[in-house]
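At this stage, I put together a protein sequence along with its fold in token form, as given directly below:
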Amino acid sequence: MERVLKDDAVEEKGERARMASFVGAMAISDLVKTTLGPKGMDKILQSTGRGRNVTVTNDGATILKSLHIDNPAAKVLVDISKVQDDEVGDGTTSVVVLAGELLKEAEKLINMKIHPMTIIAGYRMALECARDSLLKKTMDNKENTDKFRSDLMNIAMTTLSSKILSQDKEYFAELAVDAVLRLKGSTNLESIQILKKPGGSLKDSFLDEGFILDKKIGIGQPKRIENAKILVANTAMDTDKVKIYGARVRVDSMSKVADIEAAEKQKMREKVQKIIAHGINCFVNRQLIYNFPEELFADAGILAIEHADFEGIERLALVTGGEIASTFDNPESVKLGHCKVIEEIMIGEDRLIHFSGVAMGQACTIVLRGASEHVLDEAERSLHDALCVLSQTVNDTRVLFGGGWPEMVMAKEVDELARKTPGKKSHAIDAFSHALQAIPTIIADNAGLDSADLISQLRAEHHKENSTAGIDVITGTVGDMQKLGIQESFKVKQAILLSATEAAEMILRVDEIITCAPRRREDRM
């Protein structure tokens, strides 16, 4: 038979291609499965690059982002967890696990000789049904501020309970809710700055209004400024010494060298004069400021901060309402930043500069303390998840109970649909309800509970009207989610459901995998 493809290209057809994609997807979902739920475990990721960085995490998206994967179907799952992370911030593990379970169920059906398109049609029907059943059960307290705040607290505590911060979750939930309510409904988390300072314990973390810049105040400059006018700049302030690269200057006496230096100094002095002419009392620069200009600023009573990192600068310009300037010839066109007080504060051993009363009222800084860099990184990821979910919930205020309750509600409705539907589709719809029940099963398994017993109890509970039963991992029984205050955001659940189903459909449609030949290196000898 004539070959169509090049020598090293590989193609997998039919059964084998489907097997390869199923196996890859299931391997990925098994990998992150153990991190699901309040009793989920963490993974250590060690890079083989320079420095051998170690990350300790149980955030699904972080784990999957760090993997180098060869299997194409597994890549689809990695992508959906990334999108989930960008879109709603939480549920990155659940979305992969649900997609993996849907594929596991689909594999059984394909072995029963049911066509993938039939399975997809059944999944589509089941998805609509599941989503409608959730919509009917959502609660919305946006009219009542106190109730809504307690909803937000519950959602934050539920999100944090599966993370490293679960020990002090009330404390951190309070921090996150305060920070998000300051945003007044915007989902732009740029104005919440998270500063990590090793030392102390996680409990020592705090929320501070305003902005904290991780820099020290220069020598002989005012330590406290009220009603500050801030010029944020990105300009070179280090040209007061002769530094003429690659050029040669011939002089016939030492005094000429002194003239050149004096001219350089004069140039610098003029630049500083121009900057002072803006009527500012605080100058923040992205680049270095040498001793001479620093001296001039100190004489003028201006606080000069050098070498502020780029992220710090951008965010500082954003929260103080200024713009980043690099030329100073026409002061009237430069937008200055304003804040009420600039002062030096101490956090642990370090001195930092605190800007309070900034123009952008919603800006705040969360300072995280912790035992080591790894703990801090993981705490930041956990807090970021909570902040994302909360800012989404402030916009879409519908909430659900958690702890496997939504999955059971959906499974019950989908089950009923399967009984009503004639034809082969009903098998697929039934499989969808099994896949949904897998999430509470895994939550129970991770906590070392008898999942078969618990899930059957839970199913029985859910056959009563308006049941609020879910898994209480702490006592290891079926508990009342309303009393325990375990709640989740509707938006997150919906995103999990839609992404997982679409990803599973996409992998089901595959019947051939073609791997192209690698490019050969030519011998150039």
